[in-house]
Amino acid sequence: MNMWRWSHRSHWSIVMSIALSVVACAKSFDMSGDRLTPLGPEWGVVIGSVLVKQAKLADKSTKSDADMPTYEFDIVQSQPGDPDGESPYAERYHLQAKVGEERMFISRLRTGRYLVKNFAKEGITGTGGDLELIFDTMAGEVRYIGRLLVEVPQRVSRGKEYRFIVENAREGTLRKMSDRHAELAAQAVDAPMRSRESSAP
Fold first, then answer.
1. CA 155, CA 161: separation in Å to the nearest integer?
2. Long-range Cβ pairs for the range 53-60 (8 Å, 24+)
């Protein structure tokens, strides 16, 4: 994906408030600290990263690193008949990323399609929005799905725009992942996240 996508916050915040009530059931999307077992006939691996940046204000005011907020991203299993991953049987994952710090991840997932559904400022609904990005996993394969770059307003305000893009930051990401998962990183092939809308038949 080589173009920024602009979005507005909308009615999704009501859905997000419901989703947050089941966040305890979601697993961490970053498994880089785990000892990942061989892929096997049902499992594939995805590698990527998320980077949240704040838009600069005209007054050029800045925050210290300690004051930077954290955003949480929701990733769900997307299946025929349940494309939004709302079934109680769908796998759910979450990933936290602090503003200004690239959060890399490696995830061992069952074969299928997954949806990077939305994001929100940690603990505050209505401060993020929908992303609607999909990626696929395949048994026995390691896929690099790109870096999701999200730009958000510096000051929290409902209705403001945010924008996002999927970039190729393969070299740096795989180099860092090689420290702990060298064999998997060496097998990675490019299969970037893409807009669900553009992938519709």
1. 11
2. 53/99, 53/100, 53/149, 53/150, 53/151, 53/152, 54/99, 54/100, 54/151, 54/152, 54/153, 54/154, 55/151, 55/152, 55/153, 55/154, 56/154, 57/154, 57/155
3-state secondary structure of 178: helix
Cα of first residue to Cα of last residue in the chain, in angstroms, is 18
Q: Strands across the sheet with 194-195, in order?
A: 27-28, 92-98, 70-78, 112-121, 129-137, 194-195
- Going residue by residue through the chain (201 aa), what tens digit of pLDDT does each one get? 445 665 655 444 444 444 444 444 789 999 988 888 767 788 999 999 999 999 876 555 555 566 789 999 999 999 999 999 999 889 999 999 999 999 999 999 999 999 999 999 887 666 788 999 999 999 999 999 999 999 998 765 555 688 999 999 999 999 999 999 999 999 999 999 999 987 665
Q: Judge contact between 94 and 104, C-beta under 8 A.
A: no
Amino acid of residue 83:
P
Q: For the whole prediction, is pTM greater than 0.90?
A: no
> What is the token pair recorded at 86?
């709302």
Q: Which tens digits make up the pLDDT trace of 118-128?
A: 999 887 666 78
Total number of domains in the chain: 1
